[in-house]
Specification:
The protein is of the alpha+beta class. The protein is built from 17 helices and eleven strands. Adenosine-5'-triphosphate (ATP) binds at residues 34, 106-110, 112, 114, 126, 128, 160, 198-201, 204, 255, 258, 267-268, 270. Residues 1-60 are annotated as: Disordered.
Length: 471
């Protein structure tokens, strides 16, 4: 990345130089949970990282080894001056001229690494750095499409928000901005990177689930339905947002959902695909996805069905993955977890006659919901708008709202029958019954409510008196 000048505002100096602030890991639990995926060294670095210099604008020190390297590089280039950096690249990232201090590495994917960073105004972000160096333009362009998706989905609070980004290869950036690839033969220059500054998430759903199940196992508990409803609804809403934008992920898994200030948000559009405008489905050109959450059609997307139509992967494919996630939330494991190898999974998932086993659950609607998502035939799978209205999320209202009212009247009818010889009691119960059947729409003021209530209570007392005398 080209570094022109260092323009740290005063506020930033104070903020970034706060040693105590930086040596603390604001989310030790998450750092620990990520530790398994990463080299331990990266995590320990958060604590062991040297505190930043007090006045960064005046006192940016490089270690002697680096100084030596710079000196050598300068002498190799003959007359050219050493590249001037006013910050330590081991401690900071610079994106569009703004500095972000590294707090530690969160994790890394195929060709990217994600760091927890702090900005000059003391906000915590995740910084994703994708190495594009040496890649052909077509591949690099694919990586940059994530920016396009995130920009398109800006403002949706169930999608991770892109704060800023920088593509260091300006020719590539131009192509991305134009939305087309003209230079297919190009290659990304030496120090080509894509930087994305993103909202920071505390924990992903995969880690949340394993923590939840550990807790439940140790306390011998069963799944808390409200917990399930709360997060399942958020998951559905997030995927609904992208489906409405005609994007399918085909790679949905719990790790795609990140908890940001109590809400689950969708991350990682690495292999998302826009649905072609002229079709309702998209044709995948390669098998993708995480095996445990992969739909039957995703396994078979290069094949044809019985009518010689190419099997396509579209929104229903994401619904299947959601069904696998829900199943895992309910039972603590994915539906095909016992099939360990690729081929055993392939065989069982692509078999239309295979019946998924569902353990007992206390709520029959929950069972129905899982089955609606995990229907083998993709046409039978429910779509998200339907799933959002499923009785598990929206319990049906009792068929007769006035059930208790009816019961009261039935009671009065019974009383009236019993005391047919007592004219007074008969009259009171008839009056009461009429009052209870009084159309509520006609009671518009509080005064009317009070009057009705006092009449009912007076009659109730009178009737009670008569009945006790009769008894
Ligand atoms: N905004 C974020 N806030 C916090 N953690 C994040 C954020 N974005 C990604 N991560 C975490 O960083 C790690 C690496 O993410 P990344 O998206 O680079 O790779 P991946 O999804 O594991 O792999 P790939 O994208 O190559 O399939 C993951 O553990 C992910 O949960």
């Amino acid at each position: 990345m080209e570094v022109k000048g260092f323009d740290l505002p005063r506020k930033q100096e104070g903020c970034l130089a706060n040693k105590d602030e930086l040596s603390k890991d604001p989310c030790p639990q998450y750092t620990k949970s990520i530790k398994g995926q990463d080299s331990a060294g990266d995590v320990t670095n958060i604590q062991s990282q040297a505190p930043p210099p007090k006045d960064l604008t005046l006192d940016v020190k490089l270690d002697p080894l680096k100084e030596e390297k710079q000196r050598k590089a300068a002498s190799n280039k003959g007359a050219s001056a050493p590249r001037k950096r006013n910050y330590d690249p081991d401690l900071f990232f610079k994106v569009n001229g703004k500095l972000y201090q590294r707090l530690g590495k969160i994790g890394s994917g195929g060709s990217s690494e994600v760091h927890k960073v702090i900005s000059s105004d003391c906000a915590i972000y995740a910084l994703k750095k994708i190495k594009l160096k040496g890649r052909d333009y077509a591949t690099a362009y694919g990586f940059c499409q994530e920016i396009e998706y995130l920009n398109r989905l800006k403002g949706n609070n169930n999608i991770i928000q892109l704060i800023d980004y920088e593509v260091t290869d300006k020719n590539l950036l131009r192509e991305v901005m134009n939305g087309s690839m003209s230079n297919k033969d190009g290659r990304v220059k030496d120090d080509g990177y894509l930087y994305m500054v993103l909202e920071y998430g505390e924990i992903d759903l995969a880690h949340m689930l394993s923590q939840k199940w550990k807790e439940m196992d140790s306390f011998n508990q069963t799944i808390d339905e409200n917990w399930l409803r709360f997060y399942w609804q958020q998951i559905l809403q997030a995927v609904n947002t992208i489906h409405k934008e005609r994007i399918v992920l085909s790679d949905l898994k719990p790790a795609n959902f990140l908890l940001v200030k109590g809400s689950l948000k969708l991350i990682d559009f690495g292999i998302a695909k826009a649905i072609m405008s002229d079709t309702t489905n998209i044709q995948r050109d390669a098998q993708v996805g995480t095996l445990s959450y992969m739909s039957p059609e995703a396994f078979m997307c290069v094949e044809s069905d019985e009518n010689a139509n190419t099997i396509k992967c579209g929104r229903p494919s994401d619904i299947w993955s959601l069904g696998c996630i829900l199943y895992q939330m309910v039972y603590g494991r994915t539906p095909f977890a016992e099939y360990k190898t690729f081929w055993s999974k392939f065989k069982v998932i692509t078999d239309p006659n295979h019946e998924i086993t569902y353990g007992p659950v206390s709520n029959p609607w929950l069972l129905d919901l899982m089955k609606k998502c995990l229907a083998w035939d993709r046409k039978k799978r429910w779509r998200i708008p339907q799933l959002l209205e499923h009785p598990f999320l929206v319990p049906p209202v009792p068929p007769q709202l006035s059930l208790s009212q009816n019961q009261n009247c039935q009671l009065l009818d019974l009383i009236a029958k019993e005391c047919s010889n007592n004219q007074d009691a008969l009259m009171i119960s008839t009056q009461l019954s009429q009052l209870l059947r009084y159309p509520m729409s006609q009671i518009t003021s509080q005064e009317q409510q009070c009057k009705l209530l006092s009449q009912i209570s007076k009659l109730c007392c009178q009737l009670h008196e008569h009945l006790s005398k009769l008894g």
